[in-house]
Amino acid sequence: MARIPPGLIINPAPGVRYKVPAVKKLTKELILKDKVKFQKNRLGAATCLTEMSLMMACWKENDFKDSACAKEITAFHKCTKEATKERRGVKEADLKGVVQEGRLTSRNINKLLQRFPHPVKPH
Fold this sequence. Notes:
Elements: E1 8-10, E2 17-19, H1 49-61, H2 70-96, H3 106-115
Antiparallel strand pairs: 1-2
Helix pairs in contact: 1-2
């Protein structure tokens, strides 16, 4: 009879073989670290796209003259100012530790882990 290599099981059907996954032994206990890696917040949706596209369409129609597209340009600048103001508010709230959108930032997680560290077992 042929010798079966370890980790292989032969199915009763002739010629059908499949591997059995190996079970790894844990060398250390599963313990959380007291810090997480710093990650930048993911960018949200792009802002002011409609205002920008309207402004560019107006420029194209009027041979790129600013005087003819003053209304669209002011609308675009107003939108960018509001978006910048909103981003600053989000950044300030993050520095204060306020949770927004139901997600914790890495900075907030690290503050919580410092307040409630994992107990160290004596060896």
